[in-house]
Specification:
Strand order of the largest sheet of chain C: 8-9-10-1-11
Chains: A mainly alpha (about 325), B mainly alpha (about 350), C alpha+beta (about 550)
Strand content of chain B: 5-15%
Distance between the termini of chain C: 43 Å
Radius of gyration of chain C: 24 Å
Number of helices of chain C: 15
Shape of chain C: globular
Keywords (chain A): Cell membrane, Membrane, Transmembrane, Transmembrane helix, Transport
Family (chain A): Belongs to the binding-protein-dependent transport system permease family.
Oligomer: heterotrimer
Number of helices of chain B: 12
Largest interface: A-C, 48 and 59 residues
Radius of gyration of chain B: 25 Å
Helix content of chain C: 25-40%
InterPro entries (chain A): BPD_transp_1_N, MetI-like, MetI-like_sf
Number of strands of chain B: 6
Subcellular location (chain A): Cell membrane
Membrane topology (chain A): Multi-pass membrane protein
Number of strands of chain C: 21
Strand content of chain C: 15-25%
Largest sheet of chain C: 5 strands, mixed
Distance between the termini of chain B: 48 Å
Shape of chain B: elongated
Chain lengths: ~325, ~350, ~550
């Protein structure tokens, strides 16, 4: 047990090391990304350029710069941005986590509840028009590019129909702190929650439906039916439990990735300064310290989520516990 | 009279023909395939459409003037109210061959660009799918079959690739290659070539394919017929090629439409971020990007490519489902389409 | 130089007395409230000695002060230098190499510290200690600057900036006369900060200030709060006037479309970034009185690499200059109201500007139409027909569309052209570095201060070209020894006779334009969109809208 956990931990370290090295190398291989001139300012004289280069340590060999950067992120925690000088990167990442969590948690609750309902209803009314309609809607949700959907939502709620009774409650774009303004926080996030959830409702509805239908073919369900249990009871108590396994594992992976910042396009479109937007801005600005911090954070989450999911999978599926 | 036909042993239908017959009965899947093929056909006819309409969808033509019902209509209309700020492109004329969907901010015919754009999007997604499948399968096969150190190294590499945030990978690779192209030994890909988005999207999804394949190969490796072959002394690569590969073909086939759908969405996101197809070439993603700047005046320019992507992706998904139902042996348990 | 100073002081006196009554009345009526500004992102560092952005410089105006300042007035008046922390404009002595400033007394920093001679001296040294972007260019003429540039940590500027505590004066010594030194001292790079400010980039930590306002909070991801300086007592209305709003709340992160919608809905008062082109029509007709169009001293231009094929050939460069339809570019930018075509380097209304346009159908003073035939002919004559050209542009909607159009034009006249948009954050340094072999690009240049040399000398002198460096602002790589010598003569002449010098600059402008090292595209105007409640909008030619001189209630 301990050995398995240690092994997983070692894996995580390896992955994060690999990613950080790749990011570092890509950055320095990018032409025009040399931060010295951008930091020094336009039309800087050669002396100023040299002074900046020396102050920031850009004249040291790459592996030294890498080591210093890793030290600044993990040991001293005072790595500062190249673009917004003096801005500590690690606290900035920490600050933006609540925003992403608000977005992702809310959307997750929404999509889990709705997709479970859809999955059950679709499986129960298999092959009926309702089933087909639900699956088609779910498919539509998967097929729309999320950034496009977000822009369309904005077009409708912020501009075209903003004054109508339907959308006049929609507040201006931008995040509001929960501690300052709970009602504003909630209202601001409703449209982003829906936008993000639509994609996942589609996926999870279909996955659950397929899993339920499959488990309804299993032997132990036939036994339950033979025992005389009602269809509803079979569906909800027995089939659902086994089908949730696939659901939960998939959910863990997606949720982990989202918390790590993969909802970046949604955050950008709605003006929410979460970790995704931070990553996006850092990439656009070629701000290596910020890129490094956000990437470390994101990969850490993905690997942790993977490990947790594997663990939960073993817990949930009794068949695996014995192997 | 002995006119009865002698009972000949009837040829049994092989598993493939059973599967495809099943697929043919699946009306939703067939309809989706038809829709998708229709889209492909329309996009292939892009050069013809452009010629017929007399437009060059890649040249900026802000001063062009077209004829509608005998009247001269400029392609870019200057705002005349108030301060007279801004130019608005022509709205949809709903006349085939004559700026059907209107103009974009460079005065180009959106309909013609949609067709060419579809061609690019389909080409890139298709090529990326092939790329991913080849590399992912190879990785999965090797890791799953040979095990040991090879498996560990490959699996760790796949882990890194999997955990690497896709947008970061795509954006970084793009920034590095966009200006200069890639030059590795004999391979020289110029920047602006469509190969770059293909490779970027292809690489990102390799773990997506490699992991399930590896899992399947792992279980196949311990199956009796493979063990028998090993004991007989059949060389490794032969086993891979003759015994294992045919057994994962159905998984691969099912992957094709699903990966294409995923790749189309990814390509559009990358082009939207300016790191996929480069101007003035078109793809549905770049048209959405163009449309973003016109969202408030000419929303169609952003809406239509989004819908086109949604319809194509939907069609691919429905067909992919049908394919999986038809080919997956487990589906034999279910009678009829579920 | 002397004449300029005398004229400046006289005008200042007159203007100052005229402004007084109206402002006092308005202040009673409209003082107070919070004005809410939006920008896509923060403007980099908060440190005024380092920040080199329009966004930063605009916000510094009501916050920091230097020895002198640009008058807080509209129109050409806004280019006049007035005394700020100095009691009066200095008298030049020693053949224009020495300036003595008498410091005003009684001015406090926002942290309560008294502002004195030692702070001024320390601030000048700090310009070099923090390796400010212009320390090696604008302020390199100060005695002792060379030692400071070589060893920034121990910079003393000995002999260059001498403070006399007892007399309350600061003496500035230059190595040679500089006609533009007062302009340079009025820039944020030379403002006075407390002597104990650390000699390193202060980044996100606000530095105490002497102006009417101070920075009270800053988060580069969320926004900046600027509130009234409790220790401020107005000493000069034309240099540092009191402001109307109590608080300026500058929020970051919203996209341009979202910002426009926010201002329309009254949720914000102004946005820094350029308005998206698809909202222009709607705003131009429905919100006319909320729009303000003001001239800028700037140009959008396309540097051509004079040292790489095909543009090492002068005929090829001129062909491009003839072929470009600048009206189309104006359309892409938003229309005639927002931009005007240009052929030459110096922007309109700039000292030394005389209308000149050779690259048009009827060469003369103004551009009228492209001459495609002449362009094609020139391409043939140059022998560069059919060569490949790559245009590097920024990845913003407008730059991309301009790039796409230029690619179209080059293809028409006979080249094989393609365009590459690159992230705005690296494009500017990318196109400067000769290692990247950039043939053609699109970029802009906004004035630092109102002097012809700021365009011609900086962008086209041999000294501004550096091989293999990210900081080689002479992007075209243009170097003509004769023109260089002439520019030096003009600079020297400006010390004694600015008018004659401006005439020389006009000739240099024509000569440089004729050689077409870069192609002038258009000069933009600044479009400001404010909410309904904003009143008294005043635009200063040097630093744009004077934020705190407008009221919200």
């Amino acid at each position: 047990m301990i050995y398995a956990i240690l092994r997983r931990f070692g894996q995580m370290l390896f992955v994060m090391f690999g990613i950080s090295v790749i990011v570092f190398l890509i950055f320095f291989a990018t032409p025009g990304a040399d931060p010295a001139a951008r930091i020094a300012g336009r039309n800087a004289s050669p002396e100023v350029l040299e002074a900046v280069r020396h102050n920031f340590g850009f004249d040291r060999p790459l592996y030294v710069q890498y080591a210093k950067m890793m030290e600044k992120i993990f040991v001293t925690g005072d790595l500062t941005s190249f673009v917004n000088r003096g801005w500590k990167v690690v606290p900035a990442v920490m600050d933006s986590i609540p925003v992403t969590l608000s977005l992702v948690f809310g959307a997750a609750i929404l999509w889990v509840v709705v997709s479970i309902i859809i999955g059950i209803v679709a499986a129960a009314t298999r092959d009926s028009w309702l089933d087909k309609l639900l699956m088609a809607l779910g498919l539509l949700g998967i097929s729309m590019p999320v950034y496009w959907l977000g822009e369309v939502m904005n077009l409708i709620t912020q501009s075209r129909y903003h004054d109508s009774w339907a959308f006049s409650w929609v507040p201006p774009l931008g995040y509001k702190n929960f501690s300052d303004d709970p009602k504003g926080w909630f209202l601001t996030l409703i449209i982003p929650w829906i936008t993000l959830a639509i994609l996942y409702i589609g996926i999870y509805g279909r996955v659950l439906r397929a899993a339920i239908i499959e488990s309804l073919q299993e032997d132990f369900i036939r036994t339950a039916r033979a025992k005389g249990l009602s269809e509803t009871r079979i569906l909800l108590r027995h089939a659902l439990r086994t089908s949730l396994i696939a659901f939960v594992t998939l959910f863990g992976l997606d949720f982990g990735a989202l918390v790590g910042g993969s909802a970046l396009l949604t955050e950008v479109v709605f003006g929410l300064h979460g970790i995704g937007k931070l990553t996006y801005d850092a990439l656009q600005n070629l701000d290596l310290p910020m890129i490094m911090a956000t990437v470390m954070y994101a990969s850490m989450f993905v690997v942790i989520a993977n490990a947790v999911v594997d663990f939960v999978y073993i817990l949930l599926d009794p068949r695996l516990r014995t192997s | 009279m002995s006119n009865q036909a002698v009972a000949m042993p009837r040829k049994t239908r092989g598993p493939w023909s059973v599967a495809f017959a099943k697929l043919a009965r699946d009306r939703a899947a067939m309809a989706s395939l038809a829709v998708f093929l229709l889209i492909v056909l329309a996009c292939l006819s892009a050069p013809l459409y452009a010629k017929w309409a007399g437009v060059d969808p890649f040249a900026s033509t802000l001063d062009a003037v077209i004829q509608i019902d005998g009247a001269d209509v400029p392609v870019m209309e200057q705002s005349t109210e108030g301060l007279g700020l801004g130019y608005t492109p022509l709205g949809p004329t709903w006349r085939l061959g004559n700026y059907f969907l209107g103009a974009d901010s460079q005065g180009r015919d959106v309909m013609a660009r949609m067709l060419y754009g579809g061609l690019s999007s389909l080409l890139i997604s298709g090529a990326a799918t092939i790329f991913t499948l080849i590399i992912g399968t190879a990785a999965g096969l090797i890791a799953g079959y040979f095990g040991g150190i090879t498996d560990t190294v490959l699996s760790r590499l796949l882990d890194v690739l999997w955990a690497f945030p896709i947008y970061l990978l795509a954006i970084s690779l793009s920034i590095v290659t966009i200006a200069q192209g890639i030059r590795i030994g004999p391979i020289d890909i110029e920047s602006g070539s469509l190969w770059l988005p293909v490779i970027i999207i292809g690489i990102v999804y390799v773990p997506y394919v490699a992991r399930p394949i590896r899992g399947q190969v792992l279980s196949l490796r311990h199956s009796e017929f493979v063990l028998a072959a090993i004991n007989l002394g059949v060389p490794g690569w032969r086993i891979l090629w003759r015994d294992i590969l045919p057994n994962i073909t159905t998984t691969l086939i099912v992957f094709v439409p699903l990966m294409m759908a995923l790749n189309m969405l990814t390509e559009s996101a990358l082009s939207f971020l300016s790191i996929g197809v480069q101007p003035p070439a078109a793809s549905w993603g770049t048209i959405i990007q163009d449309g973003q700047a016109l969202l408030y005046t000419r929303p169609l320019v952003a809406l239509v490519p989004g819908l086109a992507i949604a319809v194509s992706v939907m069609a691919l998904n429905v067909f992919g489902d049908g394919l999986r139902d038809a080919l997956d042996p487990r589906s034999k348990v279910r009678l009829g389409r579920d | 130089m002397k004449k300029l100073l005398l004229a400046a002081s006289a005008a200042a006196l007159l203007a100052g007395t005229w402004l007084a009554p109206a402002q006092a009345e308005y202040l009673k009526e409209h003082r107070g409230g919070t004005i809410r500004l939006l920008a896509r992102s923060a403007a980099g560092t908060l440190d005024p000695h380092i920040n080199y952005t329009d966004q930063g410089w605009q916000m510094y105006q009501p916050i920091y002060d230097g020895l002198v300042a640009f008058r807080k007035a509209e129109g050409m008046d806004g280019f006049t230098i007035v005394p700020d922390l100095a009691a009066a404009l200095p008298q030049a002595s020693n053949d224009g190499k020495t300036f003595t400033f008498k410091l005003r007394k009684g001015i406090k920093f926002s942290n309560g510290q008294e502002m004195g001679v030692k702070d001024v001296v320390a601030s000048f040294q700090r310009i070099f200690k923090v390796s400010g972007p212009t320390s090696g260019t604008f302020y390199a003429g100060i005695v002792g600057a060379d030692k400071c540039l070589a060893d920034t940590k121990n910079c003393t500027l000995e002999g260059g900036v001498v403070g006399d505590e007892a007399a309350g004066t600061i003496t500035l010594n230059l190595t040679k006369p500089d006609a533009e030194i007062l302009y340079k001292l009025a820039l944020p790079h030379a403002v006075v900060l407390p002597a104990d400010t650390p000699a390193e980039d202060m980044g996100s930590k606000p530095i105490p200030s002497t102006g009417a306002y101070m920075i009270s909070a800053f988060d580069p991801n969320k926004g900046m709060t600027v509130s009234r300086n409790p220790n401020f007592k107005q000493w000069s209305e034309e240099a540092q006037p009191d402001g109307y709003p109590d608080v300026v709340q500058y929020d970051f992160g919203l996209s341009e479309e979202a910002a426009v919608t926010a201002i329309q809905n009254g949720e914000a008062d102004w946005m820094f970034d350029a308005l998206p082109s698809d909202r222009l029509g709607e705003l131009g007709s429905k919100s006319m009185d909320q729009l303000h169009i003001s001239p800028l001293s700037a140009w959008w231009y396309a540097p051509l690499n004079n040292r790489l094929a095909p543009f090492d050939n002068e005929k090829a460069r001129q062909a491009v200059a003839y072929a470009i339809d600048r009206n189309t570019l104006v359309k892409l930018f938003g229309g005639k109201v927002l931009a005007s075509p240009v052929c030459q380097v110096l922007p309109p209304d700039f000292p030394g500007h005389e209308d000149y346009c050779p690259f048009t159908k009827n060469p003369g003073t103004k551009w009228s139409a492209p001459d495609l035939d002449k362009a094609k002919q020139l391409v043939e004559e140059s022998g560069t027909k059919g060569q490949k050209v790559t245009i590097i542009v920024e990845d913003t909607a407008i730059s991309r569309s301009i790039g796409v159009y230029l690619q179209s034009v080059l293809t028409t006249i006979g080249y094989v052209a393609d365009v590459k948009p690159i992230s705005s954050n690296i494009q500017f340094t990318y196109i400067q570095n000769t290692n990247n072999k950039v043939q053609m690009s699109v970029t802009q240049w906004y004035k630092d201060y109102p002097a012809a040399s700021d365009f011609l000398n900086i962008l086209f002198s041999c000294a501004s070209f550096r091989e293999g460096s990210d900081a080689s602002i002479n992007i075209a790589g243009f170097c003509d020894k004769d023109i260089d010598a002439k520019m030096q003569k003009a600079l020297d002449l400006g010390v004694t006779d600015q008018k004659a010098a401006d005439k020389m600059w006009a000739e240099i402008d024509k000569q440089v334009t004729d050689k077409a090292p870069a192609v002038g595209l258009f000069t933009p105007k600044r479009l400001d969109f404010v909410s309904k409640r904003v009143g008294n909008f005043k635009f200063n030619r040097q630093f744009n809208w004077m934020i705190t001189q407008s009221w919200v209630q």
